[in-house]
Amino acid sequence: MKIVFIEPRASIANVYSRLSMPLLGPVYLGTILKNRGHEVEIYKEDIFAPDYAKLEADVIGISILTSTSKRGYELAKKFPKEKVIIGGIHASLLPGEAIQFARQVVVGEAENVITDVVEGRLKDAVVYGKAIQNLDTLPAPDFSLIKGLRIPSLVTPISTSRGCPFDCSFCSVTKIFGRKYRFRSAENIMEEIASRRTNSFFFCDDNFTAYPKRTRFLLNRMLKNKIRDWTCQVRCDAAKDSALLDLMAHAGCKTVCIGFESINPLTLQAYQKKQSVEEIVSAIRSFHKRKIKIHGMFVLGGEDDNKKTIWETLKFALRQRIDTIQMMILTPFPGTKVYENLESQKRIFTKDWSLYDGQHIVFKPKMLSAKELQLNIIKAYTKFYSLSNSLALLIKLHFRNAIFRFMGYSIVKQWLERNHKMDWLYEKN
Q1: Parallel, antiparallel, or unpaired for β 200-203 and 229-234?
Q2: Which conformational region is residue 252 in: left (phi greater than 0), alpha (psi within -120 to 50 degrees), or beta?
Q3: Residue from 413, 416, 411, 421 nearest 17 by CA
Q4: What pLDDT digit, counting tens, does each position of 92-127 carry?
Q5: Strand partners, 326
Q6: Burial classification of residue 347, based on how many CB atoms lie within 10 Å of its CB (0-12 exposed, 13-18 middle, 19 or more buried)
Q7: pTM to 2 decimals?
Q8: Is residue 319 within 8 Å of residue 426, measured between CB atoms?
Q9: What value does the mean pLDDT of the chain take?
């Protein structure tokens, strides 16, 4: 059979639209089916979109996030419904919505069921995937299946674990992967790394240092194999282990992405982050001490956030010299506690899922108007990613930071150009 997977494009003014890093889900599934003898093609629209009128396949698989679901449904309508299968986080959270556009919806992890779904042995409209207990049984993702992808230039995403025991009120990860960590072995990970034609990696686990003993073992293997350029996602508590941070630095960690979420203690408590502002500051200093750059992620718009919170966050980021930041707007993704609370209070004013990208306000905030929240975050972004700041970094030969600051400047500029016509949506909220 010929199977085509499609990852719908992100919204225009979105940092993810500038990165060629694909979702791992479709690549894992495509690799499994290729190994079964099927012909597989994967299209990530942000890299390359085919002429859909000429695209022929026996099965069309569409993987959707909440922000890409609207585009995903548009794509589904281009094909006979009996050929379309939809999966991904959004479909897993709202299968009743997704099934309107497909013959089947796969909920959760699909690797254990995709072959039976595609080959017709599982015929239920909604198929529930089974959590992979032994992640070493998964094949190494074959990125050559992605059309238009220049593999040598790819920052290769690698998943070394699934699940998260934390339960942040705005996060939907645990709804898909559960609250129990599952890990790949270091040997299995190193085999995948050795097979890649690149030395630049992004470990996309929600918490790369979740199990320090296992992380140390992997880092020692990476150090031995001279892996020298990689990024990962961690929590602030990783910085409490000085020996672990030293090992990360020696093993080639260049950047960490940290979900600081807020510098408002009340908001941190409401988000159930289980961390303090003091711990955030300590983490920043600990990573910077080891020359590891920080991409700090903040979520603004909580019940205790006001206009001052936004500007205090910007001042904090500049004062602490955080290298790059994301000032995301609190987004009530379906299935989260935030969504349930705001929906019960009738404060969500749009279900246009394309706006659920962390850059658009879709609910009525408590401490300020929707328009005030939206515009002040964009103004704060503009100051952080100003052209003058970007040029200053370039002059100081801080090339990596300068590149990302220029990217941020461009994204903010595009956002303003695209969204100035949306004032009507925020005026009444």
Answers
A1: parallel
A2: left
A3: 411
A4: 999 999 999 999 999 999 999 999 999 999 999 999
A5: 297
A6: middle
A7: 0.91
A8: no
A9: 89
